[in-house]
Amino acid sequence: MQSWPSPPIPGIPGAGRQLRLYDSATGEVRPTDPGPTATMYVCGITPYDATHLGHAATYLTFDLVHRMWLDAGHQVHYVQNITDVDDPLLERANRDGVYWGKLAEREIGLFRDDMTALRVIPPADYIGAVEAVDEIAVAVRQLIDAGAAYRVPDEQYPDVYFDVTTSGHFGYESRYDEATMLHLSAERGGDPERPGKRHPLDPLLWRMARPDEPSWDSPMGPGRPGWHIECAVIAANRLGPVIDLQGGGSDLIFPHHECSAAHAEVLSGKRPFARHYTHAGMIGLDGEKMSKSRGNLVFVSRLLHQGVDPMAMRLGLLAGHYRQDRAWSDEVLVAAEERLSRWRAAAGRAGADADGVVEAMRERLADDLDTPAVMAALDAWAADDRLAGPAVAAAADALLGVRLI
Ligand code: ZN
User: Fold this and answer.
1) Bridge partners of 162?
2) CA-to-CA distance for 123 and 41, rounded, in angstroms?
3) pLDDT computed for residue 295 by the predictor
4) pLDDT digit string, tens, across residues 224-235
5) How far away, in angstroms, is 32 Cα from ligand 1 center?
6) Cα 133 to averaged position of ligand 1 atoms, centre (Å)
7) Helix/strand/coil (H, E, C) string of 45-65?
8) How many angstroms does the Cα of residue 40 sit away from the middle of ligand 1?
């Protein structure tokens, strides 16, 4: 799948720092320790609705990771998927009377435009589930052959499920107890009540073809892949069996990342699948969680259409810490716009060497992406007329992705 163009990334003097990041599997902020090429997989969108600010906050988080690794001298191999065939997409297409493939194409186009405007560095591999169906089917077959997957005894639809007990440590990624896992599974697209499953938490690997649903031939018969195996296979086949980071929103901690880790680990025999599982908080609107069911989503494309500067959106979302659930409001946007204009006014000025500000930015970002502290450091720089602008402006561009000049 075509990705989007990369923003230019200016080189900045001085040495990058080793990035420390929170890992959901251990509950600690730990150093990332990539080799010459850092490997990162971030779960992509299901393209049935435009990019809202919650999505944007997630992709901006991992964009900062990407930038910190580049600054520290690593190459970064970044892979992102698009779940371009799944129940919510098909339901929306049915509701609106549009062909599901057309809906996906249109929403992916919007997403690309939003990411370009927000200056998010694109993935090297941007892979749709539809493009990857064959390789996913191969993996499902391997799991069946290994005794880690089975068909439910359903005469009409003998769908294939993964046996979570075969992973040996299911639950390590989320660290949730079974009651929480059961609750979240039911809430987030799982089917713990389905008759014939060995364990209620067993996730779907291959859904046999239903009337009026798209399907693909496979060794299991015609059907389509489950969501968790999609990400496990797309990531492992491009980045290897053990990756530096799997990222997404905090609503993906369970079941999605738990299950995709279990799939990848049983397939490869290696663990952990990801050295860091890192999750971005949710964005609310005026004190309420932003969600499709509440109908209060704020779309990036709509703000762009209203003339909002994408760099102000970026600053507004980065003003809070990535792990915190936080609110978006008109006040947040206005504060970001004012901050952006103060920084822009300072960006070109002559003055004393401000390399210390650049080093402070690196230091704060290396500490689990402490963007609120970076904002404070740059506010202090902008307010100090004695300090020069250009070096800090270049660092804001390279490290924060915020273009000031
Ligand atoms: Zn995923």
Assistant:
1) 149
2) 9
3) 80
4) 999 999 999 999
5) 21
6) 15
7) CCCCCCCEHHHHHHHHHHHHH
8) 12
